[in-house]
Amino acid sequence: MDLVYDVVVVGGGVAGVSAAIAASRTGARVLLLEKDMSLGGVLTTALVNPMMTFHSPARQVIGGIGQEIIDRLVSIRGSYGHIDDPIGFVKSITPFDPEKMKSLLIEMLKEEGVDFLFNSFVLNVSREGGSITSITTVSTGEENRVNAKVFIDSTGQGNFSIRGGAYYNIGDGSPSSCQPMTLVMRIGGVDREEIASYVNRNRDDFIISEHTDLSYLGIAGFFSFMSRLDDYGIYFKRDRLLFFEVPYNPGQIFMNTTRYPGYANRSKELTDAQTNGNIDVWKFMDFLKKEIPGFASSFLIQTGCHIGVRETTHIVGDYVLRTGDLIYRKTFDDSISVQIIQLFLQSEPALLQPQPAWLQVLLQHLL
């Protein structure tokens, strides 16, 4: 089947949904293609939670459609909105319910008149000169040829751009340097009062903002317990637990603790990471129940549909963001947006900038 649109967005995460809505509001006819069976990307399929951060130390710098999504989540009790980060890693965090996020993003696309297709993969890319003119998509039992004036890559890993011939780098210079993957767990039956009490009595065992009152649990710590992971035959190694409460779901948390090395664009390495995560999860639950205060009655609700991938390829745009741009807050006269970035250099891990200011983004970064 031949399809014709003004704009095609490949990838249905929050970035892709926002791009599709923005394009539709200009009057364009828009199609969004998503490989999974829901919208939201890693926020919903990999349970990455909370979002961070909409704020610089001084003020909110991210708004627009992103803030519209948060406002609507708040209105349906799907988020508390922006709250101070209890760990102090960034200025604010935005916890949310991923199931409500899935439904909301569908509603927003429908309201804006955006067409979307799930279970859709880009098979081939056709170009004339330096421009993509059409793509072939494959789904269960069918192929479609999609023609458009503009194609937007919101895959998160740049896979569509690479198919279209874009140059790219990998990790911090090689596949082995990519940041590790994480299988996030949603856990219920957690005694928040016992955890808060333990944290207050043992604050040296945690990274915690001096301003937090633990009315919302965002926990990085239990350092003194983590050497016991080996006793449970757990594959991953970590020096801390990291977890956050699920809004409006008492006793539930998102556990973001596992770490698995690998280059996710190699299917064998991605499979190994996912496999180790699926095997570790029950051993890890046993560890939590037997060792960690507040988890004695805990139980696993779900894991992410797939492991969370932090880093693979970096598309080389017309302008490449450099470390100095971040450290020295380089400004540009022709920026199109701002972003908050917590700088972490894998080659120099000591270079961690606490509470970064906003960074200007150029259109040339994205072309």
Automatic annotation (TrEMBL):
UniProt KW keywords: 4Fe-4S, Iron, Iron-sulfur, Metal-binding, Oxidoreductase
Q: Does the keyword Disulfide bond apply?
A: no
| Protein's UniProt keywords contain Mitochondrion | no
Pfam family of the protein (one): FAD_oxidored
Q: Which InterPro entries match?
A: FAD/NAD-bd_sf, HdrA-like
Write out the GO MF terms: 4 iron, 4 sulfur cluster binding; metal ion binding; oxidoreductase activity
Q: What is this protein called?
A: FAD-dependent oxidoreductase
